[in-house]
protein-serine/threonine phosphatase (Cinchona calisaya), 387 residues
Amino acid sequence: MVKSCWKLSVEGDGSRRGTRVGGQRGGDPNGRFDGLLWYKDLGSHVNGGFSMAVIQANGLLEDQCQLESGPLSSLSSGPHGTFIGVYDGHGGPETARFINDNLFLNFKKFASEHQEVSANVIKKAFFATEEEFLSRVKHQWLERPQLASVGSCCLVGVICDGLLYVANAGDSRVVLGRAERAVRGVTAVQLSKEHNASIESVRDELQLLHPDDSQIVVLKHKVWRVKGIIQVSRSIGDAYLKKSEFNKEPLLAKFRLPEPFSKPILSPEPSIFIHKLDTKDQFLIFASDGLWEHLSNQEAVDIVHSYPRNGIAKRLVKAALKLAAKKREMRYSDLKKIDRGVRRHFHDDITVVVVFLDPSSMSRRIFSRSSTVSIRLSGGVSSSAKS
C-alpha cells in the first residue's frame, strides 16, 4: 500500500491550506505528489516566479522548505518581499520541521520590532529559533534524549527593496544566474558561504576558536568531521554539541564526548551576505547539499537557463538523480524502483527552489493581499512508494 504523509501548508497560491494528502498523482494546483517526489512546477511571488521540488531518500524526510511572499512583518505599512527557506536536517526531521514552523514567524516579529528588513533582524530570528528548539530539548530531555542529537542546516534568502539577503548556517547553497555581456548564456555566482569541515578555512576557524582542543576536527574514513562526529560546523539544534548538559546519559553513547566542554562546539550564527539586485540577475537556485553533490554551480545554472521555467526545479532534481545512478553504474529507471531508506545509499534528500527575478517587480512599492503566497512543505512518505 502506498501511503504519503507529505504535509503541505499553502496560503494565497491555491485554494487549500494545511492539507495532508495521501499518495495520489497530480491534480493538486498547489503542487503534485508522485511517490517520493513532491513538486510545484510554477508559481508566482511578488518579485517574479518560482519552481519547487523535493525528493525523499531517507526513511523519514529530513529536508523541509518554505516560500513566503507578501508582507514580511506584522505591520500594514511594513516591508514586502519574498522569504525562501531550505532546511536540511540530520539525525532526524524534528529540527528542520521546527525551523519550518517557527523561523519565518520569528523573522516577522523582529522585522516588526525594528520596522525593517536587515542582517540584524535575520540573525536575531536564527538565534531565537535556536533558543526555542534548545528549550524544547531541555523540556523533553528525560522522555526524548535523542532529540539533543538532531539538528539542521538552515539557508534563508530574503528579497526586499531591491536587495537580496542570504543567511546560511551549514552546507546548503544558493547560486545566482547572472547574464554577462562578455559571456554567452548565464554565469553562476555562488552567494552563500558554507560551513563544512571538508573546507580548509572552516577547519582553520574551528581550530582558532578551540586552540586547546587537538581533536576539534578529525579526519575519519577520509572525511573531515567536527569532533569526529559531524561534518557541519554551524547549525540549528545539535544541542549535544552546544551545551554539556545534553552530552551525557541518557543520550546514546555514540554521541557523548569523553570530556565535558565549556563553550559550544557548533554555532547557530549564520554567515550573511547582502547583494544589490540588478537587471543582469536572472534567477536564484536554493538547494540542499544533495543537489550540489551531483551538479556543479554552472551545470545547475545552465539547466535553468536552457529550459522553460515550468517544472525547472523538478528537472534539476532529476538531473541529479540521473548522475547519481550513473555514478553507481545503474540506470535511472532502476534507481527509481529503490525505496526510501535504502535510497539514501545512492543519494540524499534533495530540495530545490528556483526563484526567478522580475526586474519590474523589484522596485514595486504597492502590493495587494492577493499577492500573498505561503508554501511550507514537510512530512514525506511513511511506507512503500516509488518515484
Observations:
- The two ends are 15 Å apart (CA to CA).
- The domain at 7-196+232-378 is CATH 3.60.40.10 (Phosphatase 2c; domain 1).
